[in-house]
Amino acid sequence: MSNEFFEQTVINLTRKGAEDRVRLLKNLHKKVLPSQLERIQKNDKSVLKEMFMPKWVSWELLRAWADNFKRPGKGKQCILCDEKKENGIDFNERFICESCFVRLKQLE
Ligand SMILES: [Zn+2]
Known about the structure:
The protein is mostly helical. The chain has two domains: about 5-70, no CATH class; about 75-105, no CATH class. It is about 50% helix and about 10% strand. The chain has helices at about 5-15, 20-25, 30, 35-40, 60-70, 100-105, and strands spanning about 75, 85, 90, 95. A two-stranded antiparallel ribbon has the order 1-2. Strands 3-4 form a two-stranded antiparallel sheet. It starts with a helix and ends with a helix. The mean pLDDT is about 90. Zinc ion binds near residues 83, 97, 99 and 100.
């Protein structure tokens, strides 16, 4: 599930002026427990019974949000520390973040 679906939903709701809904989507992380987030990511729909989500929040939307949530921030995934970073270098078509690169240079 792509993050675009979630972003697009937020944009559409914003256009419609549905501020309450936009606010809820932007604060989903405050309403969903970490264990529930994990179950959403595993496509375990039984978690819905334990959550107090309005009917308009579809499972598809929750999944898009949850998938995005485990990969927060912009940037590329560093092959060494596995984190997403904005600054770094491309090395043989792989990305190494700035801090890992500095560490590598110190080892040389
Ligand atoms: Zn790194």
